[in-house]
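Q: What residues go here?
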């Protein structure tokens, strides 16, 4: 069973799916769905369309070129069947998939490193803008402790507390 790649979005095309476009110079383009085919006909650049894999890799959203992707590469040279080679290949595929999962997890962890503090700042700003929606204005006047502090509070955090917070 031969699995092709979509020319536009790089997703997998299974047998019996997708469409093929052959240009006058005999260049073959395969598309997984009409969305990709229409974007190709509109002469859109896949590097500039946000939902394509190429865009995501170029802009640091997905793991860029990795040695584990080498196994998926298309090879047009037929190989002679050898039981030992097939056995070793299956073992290597399992090992490579484990390695890929570990690398993707590490990549995601590095990518989300500064996201938590940024999200906290955005949430605090949103809460300051809409505090009147959470508490009634009369309650805020009666008890000033319900309002948010006007100045920044400084809190000392030890290394142990920080490591516990990172784990949870």
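A:
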């Amino acid at each position: 069973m031969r699995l092709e790649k979509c020319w536009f979005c790089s997703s997998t095309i299974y047998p019996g799916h997708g469409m093929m476009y052959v240009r006058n110079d005999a260049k073959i383009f395969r598309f997984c769905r009409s969305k990709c085919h229409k974007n190709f006909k509109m002469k859109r650049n896949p590097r500039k369309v946000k939902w394509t894999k190429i865009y995501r890799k170029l802009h640091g959203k997905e793991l860029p070129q990795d040695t584990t992707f080498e196994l998926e590469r298309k090879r047009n040279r037929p190989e002679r069947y050898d039981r030992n080679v097939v056995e070793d290949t299956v073992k290597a595929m399992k090992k490579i998939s484990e390695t890929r999962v570990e690398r993707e997890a590490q990549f995601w962890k590095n990518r989300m490193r500064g996201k938590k503090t940024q999200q906290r700042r955005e949430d605090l700003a949103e809460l300051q803008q809409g505090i009147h929606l959470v508490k009634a204005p009369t309650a805020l006047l009666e008890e000033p402790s319900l309002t948010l502090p006007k100045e920044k509070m400084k809190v000392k955090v030890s290394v142990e507390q920080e490591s516990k917070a990172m784990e949870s």
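A: Context that may help when evaluating the design: Helices lie at 34-41, 53-58, 83-111, 115-129, 131-134, 137-142, 159-167. The beta strands are 4-5, 12-13, 19-22, 28-31.
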